[in-house]
Specification:
alpha/beta; Protocatechuate 3,4-Dioxygenase, subunit A; five-stranded mixed β-sheet; 12 strands; 19% strand; globular; binds 3,4-dihydroxybenzoic acid; binds fe (iii) ion; metal-binding
Length: 291
Amino acid sequence: MTDTSFDSEVSAKAADSGANASAQFQERMAAAGGRSGVIDTQRVSYLAGKVIKAINDTVLDDKVSYEEYNALKAWLIKVGEDGEWPLFLDVWLEHSVEEVANADREGSKGTIEGPYYIGGSPELSWNGTIPMRDGEPGTPLVFAGQVRSVDGRPLAGAKLELWHADDLGFYSQFAPGLPEWNLRGTWIANDDGRFEIHTLRPAPYQIPTEGACGQLIEAAGWHAWRPAHLHFKVSAPDHQLITTQLYFPGDPHNSDDIASAVKPELMLDPQDNPDAEGEITYYDFVMAPEQ
Ligand code: DHB
Ligand code: FE
């Protein structure tokens, strides 16, 4: 395969990821009964008015020209055409929404979900191996630990959903050509709340660059990188769901994640695995009771 054909394969996959993220989000909202219309009129008026005023203030303060206004209009149209609203919002806004949502929750830190979660991944036992292709590239990684309540009680039967990108930064069901559940799985903790997940260390991830979000990044002279990360949703009866991501020390993008989703509490400490090829890392999830 030549470099050019590899590049075009990569960018075709990235383009599909944007459109699929929009379709997936719409399906989930429809399945949840279409939540629009539940936010009351006063609140909509207050929030929409505040955002519109903030934009107007920027135009007035910074003397935005017609040329800049039309560039914005064209770009907003393109975000929709490219199906990139989930990408744009999850990269540049979700971190603040998550901060507000979890400000008072005790236990392990959360962070953004991002656009690529799919529920219902294959269920594995407490020490199962994530679904992957034969010869899936990447360093083997064992991710082991315990799920506990904030009072220290182990949570037997806790559910851990893990999803992560492959070695090229692609997520199954969003980039074409990958098996449906590649690098996605659900583990059920054992009677001690323990789990031992067998997977691969993910690679750093670049958000799709050839669509509207990439156009903004290029026009502004920014970069498109997220540090390598593992996404988790951890749930247990009578406890609040944790949606989080975990990161690897030394990744050059831990300090300038485009999605602003890295927190010091979310850093892993992988070591050479003494019992098998690859690495092992330990992390416990501490869950807050339902309020
Ligand atoms: C995006 C992708 C991710 O994998 C993630 O964790 C957050 C955001 C994105 O492309 O928007
Ligand atoms: Fe991600």
